Every structure is written in C-alpha cells, then in structure tokens.
User: Fold this.
Amino acid sequence: MVKIVVTAEVRPSEDLNKVVSAISNFFEFKKMDIKKEGIVQILVLESSSLKSLIKLHRVLRNERILDSARKYLLKGTEGNTISFMIHKQAAAVGVLSFVDSDKESPLGAIKFYIEYSDPKAIIDWLAPKTARGVPLWENPIPPDDK
Assistant:
C-alpha cells in the first residue's frame, strides 16, 4: 500500500495556484485539501500511487542529480517512510532543489512524505546508484500494492 502526502505553506503574499503549480512540476496528486492555520494556509496533496512520482523520476535524470537525490532520500528514511523537502521557489520554475530545513527556502519548503512497505525499492527506482553520473541500473516502478 502506498501513501504519498505533499504539504506546503501558502503565505499571504503567495498565490495558491502558483504553489499548486510548483508542486505539480514533480508530483501528480489525486486529492487536495487546504487547512487554515492563522494567516497561513497549509496545502495538503495526496496520492496512493507511485505513478504520481513519475515526473520526479524524470526530473532527477534530466537535472543529473541522482547522487544527491539518493543521499537525501536515504537520509530521510525512517521505518516505512521516506521524507524530504524541496525549495519552493526553485520548484515554481521547474527546478528541483533539495533542502535540509525549512529555513533554506524563504517561503517555506515543499515537504514530501512517502509511506511504502519497502522504501529502499522506491529509492532504487527514483535515484539508483551511479558511476560517473550514469545509473548503474534502472529498476521498474515498484508495485503499488506491495
């Protein structure tokens, strides 16, 4: 069973549609919810299929950042969950940039949470090990019902 949740703060100075568009550059969601926390809106996007990460898979190869992506994904793995953050403003222009904390993205980071029975299979699919920047393997997308 797969559960993917992507969250982002939408501050009063931001356009909700632009934040949704930034996330959509890397993630295709099936469900969207907006929660209000004071003057900030919290955007929560969800999917229950790894196919929703195909854009992310493609961008990691196009930008040639498999090694750094693998490092962030492995570092963010705890139990059956992978969590990582990307820079919101970079995402808005279609560039994938991982961040270590919310502070690295002035308007807040976009946060990904992926729950899956075998997180290593997702990491090996999204960001395989490389030699001189070339993937050592290309695994098929893991099944959603594992």
Notes: Residues 66-75 form the longest helix (10 residues). Helices lie at 16-24, 54-62, 66-75, 88-92, 119-126.
